[in-house]
Amino acid sequence: MKEFLSIAKQLVDLTKNDSFANHFTESAERISKYWTEIMQFAINRKNFDSDVDCIKHLLTIKTFEDRINELDFEDEDISINKSKNLLFVGPIKVYSVCAHHYAPIIGNVWCGYKPQNKIIGLSKLSRIAKLYARQPIVQELYTEGLFDLLKYFTESDRIVVITYMRHLCMESRGINDTNSITTYYKHNLDDAEFQALLSTIKFEKP
């Protein structure tokens, strides 16, 4: 985006070290491309009336990663009978920025659902989690928004989303706490079922 490029040029001019200025020659362009990628959902969201419509659009865009994973399960929806079993995927690595400081958020996401009307390709769960993260947001709203998106796309009312994230606004500024990791979840499973699921997850620093 030309707006990002203009801002990035100002940022580079204000912060570059002239003693090794040659390393900043293409920095503004690289910063602009990075911002465009990490803000992909936020940029596109302005063109749609809902998160669902925006995700639908972004899911149609083929990326390099998509082409690498062409042998993965197809994203076509398949009708099935109601299942008592939970389809659960994770950890899914996601990258975002916090809405307060625009500092990076690095996290792992686990999400799943009980198929009721259909199943969707496994890669679609991962892609939705990754795409929705590409915006300035707070972890709680990301978790709850992803929950709602999965409820729509899976047509199931039995959903679980767990997020486990590092916030660089805490690690690299302010309190400089490099040990804390924030966990947030939303689900509508039975409590016993959710606790059993939690016991199977190995939480490691993202």
Structure, described:
- A hairpin with a 5-residue loop joins strand 2 and strand 3.
- The protein is globular, with a radius of gyration of 19 Å.
- It has 206 residues and is an alpha+beta fold.
- The protein is built from nine helices and seven strands, in the order H-H-H-H-H-E-E-E-E-H-E-H-E-H-E-H.
Helix content: 40-55%
CATH T-level topology of the largest domain: GTP Cyclohydrolase I, domain 2
Estimated radius of gyration: 19 Å
- Uncertain segments: 67-75
Features:
GTP Cyclohydrolase I, domain 2; 5-stranded mixed β-sheet; 9 helices; alpha+beta; two-stranded antiparallel ribbon; single chain; 2 domains; 21% strand; 206 residues
Topology diagram in text:
Elements: H1 2-15, H2 27-38, H3 40-45, H4 51-58, H5 64-68, E1 78-79, E2 87-98, E3 104-113, E4 118-119, H6 122-132, E5 136-137, H7 139-154, E6 159-167, H8 168-171, E7 182-187, H9 191-198
Parallel strand pairs: 2-5
Antiparallel strand pairs: 1-4, 2-3, 3-6, 6-7
Helix pairs in contact: 1-2, 6-7
Describe this structure in a few short sentences.
By secondary structure, the chain is α+β, with helices and mostly antiparallel strands. The chain has helices at residues 2-15, 27-38, 40-45, 51-58, 64-68, 122-132, 139-154, 168-171, 191-198, and strands at 78-79, 87-98, 104-113, 118-119, 136-137, 159-167, 182-187.
